[in-house]
Amino acid sequence: MEIKIRDLEENDLKEATDLIVRLKKFNSEHDPLFALTEDLENAVLKYLKESISLDSRDVMVAEEEGKIVGIVLAEIIDRMFYHPLKEVRITELYVLPAYRKKGLGKRLIDEIAKKEKKKGCSILTVEFPNENLLAHKFYTSQGMRSIICVYGKTI
Length: 155
Prior knowledge:
The chain is of the alpha+beta class. Helices cover about 35% and strands about 25% of the residues. It has a single domain (about 5-140), classed as Gcn5-related N-acetyltransferase (GNAT) (Aminopeptidase). The protein has helices spanning about 15-30, 40-55, 105-115, 135-140; strands at about 5, 55-65, 65-80, 85-95, 125. The protein has a 5-stranded mixed beta sheet with strand order 1-2-3-4-5, sandwiched between helices. The chain is globular, with a radius of gyration of 15 Å. The N and C termini lie far apart (about 50 Å).
C-alpha cells in the first residue's frame, strides 16, 4: 500500500478535523494550560477550512486508500528582524499510531518544507507542548534543536 502526501481538500475536512482533535486531546494531557475549549471540533474545522484558501497557511495530509492517516499544518512567519526573513512553522503534526515509526512524520515534514521553500521560506521550525517528550525525541531525530522558549502561567 502506498501513502500519498497531498494538499488538504474540502472533502478531507471531517477526517482531518478528527486527527487534529485527537492531537489536541493528547496535548491537553501534558499541561493544564492546554485545557480544551467546549467547541473544539468546530474551531478546528473552521481553522482547517480557512487554511485551504490562505497563502500564509498550508495543510498537507497523508492518505492511504482514501483514508487520511497523517496531517501537517504550517504557517509562514515574517521574521522582519532576522535572516532568513521567512520561516515556516509547523503548528500541528499528527500521524495515526498504526502509521508511526515508519518514516511518515519525516515525509510530512519534508513535503511541507519543499512546498514552503517555493514560497521563499528557508527556515523550518515547529511548536509543541514542552512536556511532550515524544515530540522532543522525534524532532531532534529530524535534526532540529530548540531556538526559542515560551514560558507561561495563568493570570
